[in-house]
Each structure stands twice: as structure tokens, then as C-alpha cells.
Amino acid sequence: MAGFGLFKRLVGGERRHSEPRVRAPVATRVLVVDDSATIRAVLGKMLGQDGYEVLKAADGESALTLARNERPDLIFLDIVLPGVSGFSVLRALRHDPPTAHIPIVMISGNVQATEQFYVQRYGADDFMKKPFGRAEVFERIRQLVLAGRLPARTPVDRAPPPAGLSQAEWDAIPDIAMPDEAHRTPEPPAG
Questions:
Q1: Where are the domains of the chain?
Q2: Rounded to whole angstroms, how far apart are CA atoms 16 and 92?
């Protein structure tokens, strides 16, 4: 399916940046809570590449400690965790005045936990089912910004370009990698 989206952008059926992206400010602190090291790493990388500061916890106890001590601006919280469940973490954070306002996106790949979430809702701001991709992660953030739960990133508030590139050079890099005309191999003559 991802290949089809790329194809649509290549042939002009879809423009990736046809309208400005709605994002939270650079350095927004995001706590990623998941017992899977892979999920923590991948979600952390996605968020870090967009300029967010990422904190990580592998279990409910660590999540509660980090949330209370570090006061993140947003939490992605897995439902099924060792020890204290994600639902218990959510309830504890919602009952603690210093953390009650933090937007929380619950995540799970467990069918029963997902069904339970939708039946009881538990006070989370949103839900994301595993597996998820980059577009879904940033759509959740976009929805929180549009709902006023997170501040919006201003045009001047963007992640700095990588070392060795100016902002203009960074902005000039296209979203789709295509070979330069000078580097294309000529087609063999028909015959």
C-alpha cells in the first residue's frame, strides 16, 4: 500500500506537502511507553527526526516516574505493559493534578485490549493500533494540535538542518528521490 502512495505522488495524483503540516513545536517533550524495544526505538526515531525531544519507558512504573518528574507535553502509552498496565498508568496520571492535562495517545496491538479501550474509553485523548506508520503518528499529533491540546508549530519553529547543510539547502531537498538528469543512463537505441 505504501508503494501505491508513492506512485500517486510520482504521477501527481497526491502532493505530500500541498498544504502546510500542522505539528507541535520543536523540542516538544514526548514520552513513549512500550515494553517493546523496537516500538520505543522506531517511534522515538520518527518523533526525533521531526524535532521532538523523546523520553522512553519500558513499563508502567517507569512511565509514572518519568511523567511526574519530567512533565512531558505528550505521551504515547501502550495498553499492555509488564507490571502496571497502561490503563492503570492512564488513570493514575489523570488523577494527579500535575499530569492530568497531558495529552495521552493509547497504543496497542492486542485485540482484546483494543476492544476494551473502545468500550470504556478511559479518558485518553486518542488511540493508535499497532502496527502503525509515520503518517498515523503525525496524524495523531495533528489532531491534538487542531483540538488545542498541543500548541502549533510556527513556520520559524522547525527542526534545524543536519550539520553541514544550510536551511536553504535542506529545504531544497525534494520529498521523492529521483535520479538527476546528469546521472541517468541513456536508454539503448531501439532496434
A1: 20-147
A2: 39
pTM to 2 decimal places: 0.71
20-147: CATH topology is Rossmann fold (3.40.50)
- DSSP conformation letters of 63-105: HHHHHHHH--SEEEEESS-SSS-HHHHHHHHHHSTTTTTS-EE
Q: Helix, strand or coil for residue 108? A: strand
Write out pLDDT tens, residues 2-46: 554 444 444 444 444 445 678 888 889 999 999 999 999 999 999
Nearest to 120 by CA among 88, 150, 77: 88
Element (H, E) at 45: helix 37-49
Which residue type occupies 133?
G
Confidence label for 100 from pLDDT (cuts 50, 70 and 90) = very high
**The residue to which cell 501505491 is assigned:** 4
